[in-house]
Specification:
The chain has 184 residues and is of the alpha+beta class. The chain has one domain: Roll (Diaminopimelate Epimerase, Chain A, domain 1). The radius of gyration is 17 Å and the shape is globular.
C-alpha cells in the first residue's frame, strides 16, 4: 500500500502534483527542471514578434509593451488563432502573453492547449516567459516573480550553465486537495 497526497497550485484546475509521504512545508511547492534549450524565433505572425519555447511543453511567448496592453489582450481570440497556427502543427501550442514590469517581475496570461481557454495560472508558461526573457537579454541567470491571472505568484530561478542546458526552479503556494490510499 502507498499513501498519496494531491496538492494543487491555487487557480489551476488542470495541473496536480502527486507526492508519496511528502508534505509541502507551509503550503509551498518547489519543482526543479533541467531542459535542453529549445528556443525558436523570432516568428512574425500578424506583424508581431513572438518566440517559441519548449519549457517541457510547447509555448509561443508574446511580450507586450504595457500592462494595459496585457489586460486588454483578447487571450481567447488571439490564443485560439495562434494555438492552431500552421507553424505549430500538428500538435499546436500554448500561447502566453507577458508584460515585464521590471527585469524581475512579470505578469502572465495563458491560452492553454487542451483546456482551449485562458487558464488562471500556468507553470510551464511562467518558465517559458523567463527563458525567453533570459534569451532576449543574453543573461545566464535570472530570478523572477511571475504574477498569474489568478494573482498568485510563482517564483522562478533560472540559470543556463551551458549553451544548450537550462535549470529552473519554480516555487509557489499549494493546497491539499485530498489524501488517499491505493494498493500496489
Amino acid at each position: 500500500m502507498a499513501t498519496f497526497n494531491y496538492y494543487q497550485k491555487p487557480g489551476q484546475t488542470d495541473s496536480v502534483i502527486a507526492c508519496e509521504g511528502k508534505k509541502f512545508p507551509n503550503s509551498i511547492f518547489s519543482v526543479q527542471f533541467t531542459l535542453n534549450k529549445k528556443i525558436n524565433g523570432p516568428y512574425k505572425i500578424s506583424s508581431k514578434t513572438r518566440y517559441y519555447i519548449d519549457a517541457g511543453t510547447d509555448h509561443i511567448v508574446n511580450y507586450v509593451p504595457t500592462k494595459k496592453d496585457l489586460n486588454e489582450t483578447d487571450v481567447a481570440g488571439i490564443g485560439k488563432i495562434m494555438r492552431f497556427h500552421k507553424q505549430f502543427q500538428p500538435n499546436g501550442t500554448n500561447v502566453n502573453f507577458v508584460f515585464c514590469e521590471s527585469p524581475n517581475k512579470f505578469y502572465l496570461r495563458t491560452f492553454e492547449r487542451g483546456v482551449e481557454a485562458e487558464t488562471l495560472a500556468c507553470g510551464t508558461g511562467s518558465m517559458a516567459a523567463v527563458i525567453g526573457r533570459m534569451n532576449l537579454g543574453q543573461k545566464k541567470k535570472l530570478f523572477c516573480k511571475v504574477i498569474q491571472s489568478s494573482k498568485e505568484v510563482l517564483s522562478i530561478k533560472c540559470r543556463m550553465p551551458s549553451q544548450n542546458k537550462i535549470i529552473l526552479e519554480q516555487k509557489g503556494r499549494a493546497k491539499l486537495i485530498f489524501t488517499g490510499t491505493y494498493e500496489l
